Amino acid sequence: MVQLSSMAKNILVVGLTCIDVVNYVNSYPLEDSDNRVMKQVWSLGGNAANNVTVLNQLNSHTTLFSALPADNSLVNQLLLKNGICSSRCVFRENSEVPLSTIIVNESSSTRTVLHYRGQLDEVKFEEFKATFPNISDFCWIHFEGRNCDEVLRMVEYIREQRGSAALPRISIECEKVRPFPTMERAIPLADVVFVSKDFAKCRGFTDKESAVDGIRKLFGVSRNTIICPWAEKGAAGRACEESRMVSVEAFTAAGPAVDTLAAGDCFIACCIHWLSEGYDLEQTLTRACRITGKKVAKRGLLALDIT
Q1: CA–CA gap between residue 272 and residue 54 (Å, rounded)
Q2: Is residue 174 within 8 Å of residue 195, measured between CB atoms?
Q3: Residue 36 near residue 24 (C-beta atoms within 8 A)
Q4: What is the pTM for the complete model shown?
Q5: Is the pLDDT of residue 236 over 90?
Q6: Is CB count within 10 Å lower at the N or C end of the chain?
Q7: How does 165-195 read in b/e, with b if 16+ C-beta sit within 10 Å?
Q8: Which Pfam family, giving just one, matches this sequence (predicted)?
């Protein structure tokens, strides 16, 4: 395991912050029916904010870069509750926060998300460049799989600035399935690529191992680390084309899944943490699956069991 100095362990996460209105139910409601919600929670959401929420619990030194509505007391309260500093975020006047209404069926551990984008422009490349003129402050920069044109420019800027240096490492998330090109354009430029089950299945892959090698071949990359979590099947990854396939089973000892909301965000955050700490891929995936398995056995992302 390679150790970095504490000053070199800063992590930057770029992406969405929103509010999640999470409704826990015993069974999924029928259309045009009345149903009782067993518990409702208003929490911080968005992949990037979720990543930082988990990274903070793992003692990583993490910075969030996200667009936020100015003077929104609820968002500010939730950021504070999750221990997230917003000092490097972009605040927009006359904007409204994106909001997700979520139905979590605890009997089947499914979650259904209805996302309202709101009136809030996402962060721009020029804002990123102005906010982070010295990327050497970070050992790792992670991008959520959205706002793709701007993110691609950010990734290109980081690669240009770091030159031949190994740090900061760049990771991207290929999660969403869209009928047009999205984050796959950045795959050849990233050091670590997280590929979701849905993204992989959309491209014809039927398991995590074939997805790892298939994505590598499909996009013509050899030195990138490809990681693919596959829900209850665990996760797989390969550090580079010549390295061995690492395949890890899901962690189920914490009990049955009751809340899979943000499980993927939890997994990615855990991987970023342990890879940035110098752990190898097998150690990283094992730990990430363990923490994620504990997360889905409870409600929410706070107070995770990180042992």
Answers
A1: 10
A2: yes
A3: no
A4: 0.95
A5: yes
A6: C
A7: eebbbbbbbbbbeeeeebbbebbebbbbbbb
A8: PfkB
Q: How is 261-273 classified by DSSP, letter by letter?
A: TTHHHHHHHHHHH
Contact 261/111 with Cβ under 8 angstroms? yes
Query: DSSP per residue over 244-303, as a string?
Result: PPEEEPPP-TT-S-S--TTHHHHHHHHHHHHHHTT--HHHHHHHHHHHHHHHHTSSSSSS
| Per-residue confidence band for 279, with pLDDT thresholds at 50, 70 and 90 | very high
The CATH number given to 10-15+47-68+123-297 is 3.40.1190.20
CA nearest neighbour of 52 among 23, 89, 22, 24: 89
Q: Which residue has the tokens 């912050």?
A: 17
Task: Compute the distance between CA of residue 167 and CA of residue 110 in angstroms, rounded to an integer.
Answer: 38
Tokens matching residue 11: 């992590």
Phi-psi region of 170 (alpha: psi -120 to 50; beta: other; left: phi over 0): beta
One-letter amino acid at 282 equals: E
H or E element that contains 128: helix 125-131
Q: Which two tokens stand for residue 82?
A: 């999750």
Q: Which residues contact 118 (CB under 8 A, 6 or more apart)?
A: 18, 95, 96, 97, 98, 99
Residue 99 CA to its chain's centroid (Å): 17
The 10s digit of each residue's pLDDT in 132-179 is 999 999 999 999 999 999 999 999 999 999 999 999 999 999 998 887
What is the spatial distance between Cα 258 and Cα 92, in angstroms, rounded to a whole number? Answer: 36
8-state DSSP, 121: P
Radius of gyration over every alpha carbon of the chain, rounded to an integer in angstroms: 19
**Residues 105, 88 contacting (CB under 8 angstroms):** no
